[in-house]
Design goal:
Elements: H1 2-33, E1 44-48, E2 51-54, H2 55-73, H3 78-105, H4 111-119, H5 125-130, H6 141-150, H7 158-185, H8 191-200, E3 203-213, H9 226-235, E4 241-242, E5 245-254, H10 259-278, H11 281-291, E6 301-302, H12 311-314, E7 322-328, E8 331-355, H13 366-381, H14 386-393, E9 405-408, H15 416-424, E10 430-435, E11 438-462, H16 467-483, H17 487-497, E12 502-507, E13 513-514, E14 518-519, H18 521-529, E15 539-541, E16 544-554, E17 557-558, H19 561-585, H20 591-598, E18 602-609, E19 614-615, E20 619-620, H21 622-628, E21 642-643, E22 647-658, H22 665-690, E23 694-696
Helix pairs in contact: 2-3, 8-22, 9-19
Organism: Chitinophaga pinensis (strain ATCC 43595 / DSM 2588 / LMG 13176 / NBRC 15968 / NCIMB 11800 / UQM 2034)
Protein name: Periplasmic chaperone PpiD
Transmembrane segments: 12-33
Length: 702
Amino acid sequence: MSVIQKIRDKYAVVIVVVICLAIVSFLLQDAFFGKNSLIRRSTTVGKVNGTELEFTEYQQMIKNAEDRMRMSNGAVNEQITQQARESAWTKFLSDNILSAQYEKLGLAVTEEEIKDQFTGKNPSPIITQQFTDEKTGKFDRARMQQVLASISQDKTGQMRAGLLQLEEYIAQSRVSEKYLSLIKQAVYYPKWLAEKQIQDNAQTASISYVSVPYASIADSTVKVSDSELNSFINSHKELFKVEESRKVDYLAFNVIPSAADTAATLKVLMDAKQELDTISNNDIAAFINRNSDLPYYDSYISKSALMVPQKDTLVTLPVGAVFGPYYDNNLIVYAKMIDRKTLPDSVKVRHILVATQNQQGGGLPDSLAKARIDSIERAVKGGADFKALVEQYTDDVRSKPTGGEYDVTPSTDFLKEFKDFALEKGKGAIGVVKTAAGYHLIEVLEQKNIGSAVKLAYLAKPVSPSRETDSKAYAEANEFASKNRDAKTFEKTIQEKGLNKRIADNLRPMDFVIPGIGQARELVRWAYDSDKGAVSNVFTFDNTYVVAVLTTVRAEGTAPLEDVRPSVEAEVRKQKKAAQIIEKIKSPASLADVSKATNQPEQKADGIGFGTPFVASMGFEPRVVGAAFNKAWGTAKVSAPIEGNAGVYVLKVDSYQPGQGGQDPASVSRAYEQSMLSALDGQLFTVLKKLSKIEDNRSKFF
């Protein structure tokens, strides 16, 4: 007991402090590392009108978009991935912005409506497209019903999942159609307005005028201050709206092969050329594909289709001769003449394909396919209708709509045996050819421009920079970056050394490509993570090292004066010139007074129409055109000075001429409504986006 009491007396304060520290550390741990921690990174990539998009959900949307693009484009590259990101983001915005509109208006699609889109009298175009008969081009209702009936038998669940996806797509399309229909019903151009438009455009005017060009006053005599310029911007904010962006200046240190690199490539090529000189044609394909960066093309090509440097020399080479080396873009090339033939440069053929069995399981066994093609050949030679046999028997769906016809040239990418028959047989020849696809019955219909065609082999190697060359370029870039760490010295060094500075302007947060560099996402991210005036370290891109300086940081809103100074100065200076000219003219009693006061001649203009703001002798001057039809002046008075685009004008109407007239108000209304309806399809979603509150944080994740 005394020991415990001693601990209490001696260490009470220490124990209390330890307990307090433990409690505080626990609270801090939860604050900084818990689920709702202060430093926990947000996983929200964006918001629209309060609805969040989580990173994992966005990634799945991107994958779905990539899968769709892969079906159309094959392999997915960085460009397609970027397109998929934008497609997924647009879908997120569209789904949430439009769904809010649908809900506000009480729009929905019922199960009965979806069912009717499948089985009703007028099925959805989405359904008719899915179940169109290839032969007739018409909707195959029986096939659709058969597919729907078989869904319950699919144990994998894939067909049911596909049906649900199709139903969802149809529902989205239907509710979108309803929404657009409601919006479009609001487009109306009343008859009275059409009649007023016809009346306004029913006459033309002939005028006399005096023009005082703004150019008659030297810019140097008109001073403008920053306060005046900023005042103009604030009064015209809509004209100077900008999105968030960055501007960088940069130097590119390109990794260019040196003379030593070229010599090394030449040595490799010359060693291989010794074998090229003597190798047989039987082994040439394997040799070229093993040693050259240009694969062997085992076919003939006409001179007109040959797209290589030195082609005039190449086509005259003797068989077996080698020419080179020569440059073809970044390749050093030796070319060898393999063979020469006289061939047409274009052949029209038609064929019937009986496919043989392959790894995918399609086609007939070889013996049955051969028997069928032989019987078809006998029928054709006996006078049967070739097109009818194509329709009945061919397995080539691509040429079936054209009666089995193809145009073949020496450079066309066809199966070799097929192409050899088409090019080497004469007009009217009919025969059976076997290819990897099966048995073809081919008939040569027409041949054009028979002439020389050549088969060439190319031994080619690119001149690539060596490691030493690459290191030298990097060292130059690194030295520049280390010695120029602020914008002022960056620019000063460029000027002193005469370096080629490049500019990348209007970089958006999700940009991936910079013109002149290519894929440069790292540089864009750096520009958004840095302060104005910062100089980057060395960025490594494809055969290029880049050092950049962040010169402009633009926030979303109104453009700062420094970004728009030239255009604003021109406009403000023009206004000041107009004020000087108007002050000189005052209130003129006649055009002669204006001409005398300004030392400018009187001029005339005819055929001015109220609906056409362009005047041949003036250019685009809508204010002048409007003034010509001002009833307050008519033909009796001269106008007040008019501040136009190119100068200040004073005019007097000499006469009005009646127009042709005869326009139908209903036609004018319909034309206007149609133009508005066409514009709605492209602009409606853009307007809805502007009215929405959108937060895009994707640049923090990519």
